[in-house]
Amino acid sequence: MGRRVTTGAVVMLLVAACHTAAATTFTAEIADQDGKPVQNAVVSLVPDPKTAMPGASTRLPSEKIIDQRLEIFLPIVTIVPRNGRVVFTNNDPTTHQVYSFSPVKQFEITLARDASSPPIVFPSVGVAALGCNIHDNMIAYIFVADSPWTGLTGADGRVVIEDVPPGNYQAQVWHYRYPPRREMPSARVAVASDTTRWTANIRVMTRSTTRSHAGSY
């Protein structure tokens, strides 16, 4: 069973749910406007009504590590729950000055070689864009989740979210190449079976237009 939902000219979502029994494994497959898999897309399920949603920290790890190697943030996208913590490590032979000017969290830290930061708490939901004052090419993102049913797509554009209670949800997609300040693409999905499969095509910006994040988040 499938139906197509179009939101403006920017995003086209194709919803396909395959129901077989009564458990709750949700699989999302995200592709771009050319049909190519989208890696590092964040998929969240928000129940309807939202009041039925437990805190994100009930399922998501409360602390993550972002490393710096070869003047690259690893990983480029990190998911933490509201009030989650991030520790930054520096495995480069040079100093880094990590910062975020995002409304979600503003901070600036200096990390010498082989140093680690104290845990930095992210109390607000949203996206924090990261940069380095010394190396302008370094960009990464922290997605602070409100929903415990949140995951990140792999190289094949797929993410599997286990143990989703049956019910109606808004499936939302965020990606750092999606135009900033625009509402995340979403579609209504029903989870009421052994497996629910959802596919979405989102329109993302070219890589050349996403190198600078100043003021984007």
Task: Describe the fold and architecture.
The N and C termini lie far apart (37 Å). The protein has strands spanning 2-7, 11-16, 25-31, 42-47, 63-69, 72-74, 77-81, 84-90, 96-102, 105-111, 120-122, 126-132, 139-145, 150-152, 158-161, 167-174, 186-191, 195-202. The strands form four sheets. Strands 1-2-18-3-15 form a five-stranded mixed β-sheet, with no helix packed on it. Strands 7-13-12-9-10 form a five-stranded mixed β-sheet, with no helix packed on it. The chain has a four-stranded antiparallel β-sheet with strand order 14-4-16-17, with no helix packed on it. It has 217 residues and is mostly beta strands. Strand 9 and strand 10 (105-111) form a beta hairpin. Helices cover 0% and strands 49% of the residues.
List the helices and strands and how they pair.
Elements: E1 2-7, E2 11-16, E3 25-31, E4 42-47, E5 63-69, E6 72-74, E7 77-81, E8 84-90, E9 96-102, E10 105-111, E11 120-122, E12 126-132, E13 139-145, E14 150-152, E15 158-161, E16 167-174, E17 186-191, E18 195-202
Parallel strand pairs: 3-18, 5-8, 7-13
Antiparallel strand pairs: 1-2, 2-18, 3-15, 4-14, 4-16, 5-6, 8-11, 9-10, 9-12, 12-13, 16-17
Task: Give a summary of the structure in a few sentences.
0% of the residues lie in helices and 49% in strands.
Which keywords apply here?
217 residues; mainly beta; 5-stranded mixed beta sheet; 0% helix; 49% strand
Report the radius of gyration as a whole number of Å: 18 Å
- Secondary structure class reads mainly beta
Range of strand content:
over 45%
**Number of E strands:** 18
List SSEs in N-to-C order. Answer: EEEEEEEEEEEEEEEEEE
What is the averaged pLDDT score? 86
The major beta sheet can be summarized as:
5 strands, mixed
Distance between the termini: 37 Å
Shape: globular
Q: Helicity range of the residues?
A: under 10%
Q: Which stretches are poorly predicted, pLDDT < 50 over at least 5 residues?
A: 1-21, 211-215
- Major sheet strand order: 1-2-18-3-15
What's the tally of helices? 0
